[in-house]
Amino acid sequence: MFGGGRSFTLFKVRGIRVTVDWSWFIVLFLVIFWLSDFYGSLLGVPNSSTEPYLLAVASAAGFFGSIVLHELGHAFMAARNGIGITRISLWIFGGVAQMDRESDSPGTEFQVAIGGPVVTALIAAVLFAIGILTVGWAEFRDTMEMDQFVGTSGVIAMVGWLAAVNLIVLFFNLLPAFPMDGGRIVRSIAWKITGKRSAATRFAAGLGRIFGYLFIGLGLLLAVRGSVFSGVWLALIGVLITGSARAATVQTNVTSRLDGIKVGDIMDEHPVAIPATTSVDQALDEYFLRYQWSWFPVVDGGNRFLGMIIRDQVDQVPETDRTSTTVSEHLELNSRAFHISEEALLESLLGNPDMRKFGALMVTDHGGQLAGVVTVEQLGRALKP
Ligand SMILES: [Zn+2]
């Protein structure tokens, strides 16, 4: 949802770093503090008993796990659509899955946005099933309402609390308050209908600001009525939402200049490319020394893009091997992916990590043939009013 402050890495799953911000510990502390009291009176055990405390710690861990799984739901859908997730960070207002670029179609945007809430709904459903199958619906409902006189076991009370918390997380995230999940879903639908991402973002961000102000108002009302903590917390979320929504609107005013422009419209056509069978020696002489560029695309006999060759790596090939090896044997690792379709929208280049690395991307047509090259400078010119 939002970016956090100082944080440290907890663990890694499939190359994704899961980090927590110090503020997240306030959440865990409050959950443990408040729930151990609750479980204590529920179980009617003496103050010296460790059972309520253990249940509270387990509940906090379950809550933490639920939020991480929610963010992994976003990450999974992003990865399926070719968007990398480098980091999931948790802080006082929840989790954020950091994507290495924005979605380039309304369908992708929708799938990534819904991925988290779907996981949260599944977690809630599983917890409900466990609760209802164990103690029946009526008792489980009372447990979720934290009715202390039900007399259920501590474990079922914990299942009930986690189910309720996941329902609250689901409800909150589905509110159409951009940049929260519900707001992103609204944006994807508006984008699908209008065909314009910037118009959709402006609409969703406008709605987000309205919700942000509502949260601030409601939070202040709660605070003066005595629920100081939840009131202040809600008001702060409101402040964050209005701020992020405003930033999204400002950014959109810039990127809307790219609306409808395709990569193929601004690229340089017929870039100089090195045939794959060229020896390293020949590549140095006829390309690197002649043009003084630090990289070249490499193509096969059919002009299909194979990858990039980099000056630094060519220089490292021993003199004795330079005539016997070809450029195709010294391609930059994974550089076959450093291309984009000429049909792609220009705005999808914004924040593209390969573009950042090279300052340029190779452009291919639908046959995979090298059609051109698009550079950061060209993108910058297109963004200027
Ligand atoms: Zn989410």
Description:
The mean pLDDT is 85. The longest helix is centred in the N-terminal third of the chain and has 30 residues, at 51-80. The chain has 13 helices and 11 strands. α2 (51-80) packs parallel to α5 (154-174). The protein has helices at 24-43, 51-80, 106-135, 137-144, 154-174, 181-194, 197-224, 228-255, 263-266, 280-291, 311-316, 353-358, 376-383, and strands at 7-13, 16-21, 85-91, 94-99, 268-269, 274-275, 295-299, 305-310, 339-341, 360-364, 370-375. With 385 residues, the protein is α/β, with parallel strands linked by helices. It has 2 domains: 7-174, no CATH class; 263-383, Roll (CBS-domain). The protein has a 4-stranded mixed beta sheet with strand order 1-2-3-4. Strands 5-11-10-9 form a 4-stranded mixed beta sheet. β9, α12 and β10 (360-364) form a beta-alpha-beta unit. Zinc ion binds next to α2. The site of zinc ion has 5 residues, from α2.
Query: Structural class of the helices, strands and pairings?
Result: alpha/beta
Present as ligands are: zinc ion
Radius of gyration: 27 Å
**CA distance, first residue to last residue:** 30 Å
Number of domains: 2
> Looking at the structure, what is the overall shape?
elongated
- What percentage of the residues does DSSP assign to strands (E)? 5-15%
H/E element string?
EEHHEEHHHHHHHEEHEEHEHEEH
